[in-house]
Amino acid sequence: MQNYSLGGVTLNILLGSNAIPNEFPYQVNLRDINNQIFCGGSILAPLFILTAAHCLQDPKILNGMTVVAGDHTISKDEGTEQSRKVGRIHNHPSYDKPTRYNNDIAIIQLDKKLELNTFVQPIPWPKIATDFADSNSLERQVSTSLCHRKAVISNNMICLGGDGRDSCQGDSGGPVVCNDGNNKVLCGVVSFGISCGMTGVPGVYTDVSKYSTWIEKIISNEQNVLNSWKSIRVTTPGITDHYLGHKDFKGWILNHVTSTQSQNGRESSTWRLIPGLANKQLVTLESFNYPGQYLRHRNWRIELSHDDGSTLLKLDATFYLRKGENPGEFKFESYNYPQRFIRHYNGEVWIADSSRYDSKDSPHLFKEDTTWKIVDALAS
């Protein structure tokens, strides 16, 4: 066995060949808070990385995790590396169901787009379901019957290896690439294996072609949020039909259904999510009925304010869009006050944490009060 550098990850490729710089510009490595590589991934688009869901299940690892692209030799800085933090994680909703490692696929949404160049490039994925498991484009494919004898697999998996060449620990989430004519296509994600390169014992990989629709949906939904009018609904149990809005230029949650000024309430609860004023990779909320005025925090309170050109306004009006607990749900984290999130409390809207510093920072229902669902615009 020899160690080789593949897209920045030192892979234990048995009987493999050394990678040359730029050979795998689509491959990234995932690093923990101690800068140790624990998994790999593939660039789908400047903001999206495909990896294995099982790589992203340990909260301790996710804390401080970074994604590094353009890294060929991990032992030295070559000046081609790009490091990004994680904005959101999209685990496949059926991961681990009904059998372990089934649907072992996830998309990492970065907090900032990668800059594409010679060293950092996306790789195409199948845009329609293609049965690569029956394709000659997969070298070292193993028969389904042999694979079933060695492990419990589903139709969402591909078996490869078993001839002394295989992926090993640390390779999880990395790509299996197929030749589609003269083009390379991402057709598999390293998932699991019983051993490491043992003859007759194959490795198991997630078949990317079975998830084309899911991948397209995640990427298109996230990209379509920006520059479109939306309303932002409260998710706290017991509070129904309330939305993030403004009244007298202060942030409130409004109930457009019972309001005597329902049209005004709908307009005051409609926002355009635009690229962040202080960071174009993040978001700013622009008012529907007061164009050119933005949601910002001042002394922790959320309010509506016009762009006065100041750096402070731009910072106060820029937010990370973080994944909530359920599909379609998000948290808005302050750009200049990390770990403080837009929260409603007694009808008012603040940026808050759960420190107990004062009533708005109460840990009671903090997760629920800071989670919002982005829905179709109430006003048009």
Explain how this protein is built.
- Pfam families: AbfB, Trypsin.
- It is found in: Secreted.
- Keywords: Calcium, Disulfide bond, Glycoprotein, Hydrolase, Protease, Secreted, Serine protease, Signal.
- This protein is mainly beta and 380 residues long.
- It has two domains: 1-224, Thrombin, subunit H (Beta Barrel), CATH 2.40.10.10; 226-376, Trefoil (Acidic Fibroblast Growth Factor, subunit A).
- It is built from six helices and 24 strands.
- The strands form seven sheets. The protein has a six-stranded antiparallel β-barrel. The chain has a six-stranded antiparallel sheet with strand order 17-16-13-24-21-20, with no helix packed on it. The protein has a four-stranded antiparallel sheet with strand order 9-12-11-10, with no helix packed on it.
